[in-house]
Design brief:
14-stranded mixed β-sheet, single chain, 2 domains
Length: about 210
Amino acid sequence: MKNYLLLLLLIVLNHQVEAQRIEYDIFNNLEYESKEKDYSAYLKKDVFDNIIFSDSNGNELTFHEDYLEQEYENLVGDKEQEMDFFRYLIYRYRFESGYKASFDINISNEVIIEDNRNNRIEFGTDIFGYPTYEEKRNETEISIKRDVSGNLEYISGKEQAFLKKDIFGKWNYSDSSGNEFEFGKPAWRMLKKTYVSEEKILLFLLKNFLH
């Protein structure tokens, strides 16, 4: 999953973060100070080639080397991309306080994001190449995954939803709120054209019917 969303935000960010106030220090790390001098931020590389974002609000985000290589290809060493990444982090966390998070890759090549607010996100692919997603927010666990038949299931606490393909090749949606839909081939082709993957179709259905 490549993080190209930065490109969509840069036009806005360039107007909100004064580019002339971001510069490299003598150690080749990035630093920023607001015009009012009431906020400062830093983007530094440690001895393990991890990148650490920190600021005067007590926020600290650690992006491990493996995560950067997988999710932000060619970021390290490209000064323009590093600058854009730094601008995004300033924009995203300037009004946060005391937030700490780690972005890493585990031995199964899954992305692991954990923070100091008892949140954890884990996503990757299963042995069949299907995307998997698991999330924990406080005491609620959320997961989207495939069963052995390739059907999709969503679980969030007591909420559940399923996107299944029957023996006739038709896809069906059902959830714990009592919604049930069967998609004919024309309707399914339209959904696939719009959302591309079954996972994104499921997210669309969840947003509009379960939540």
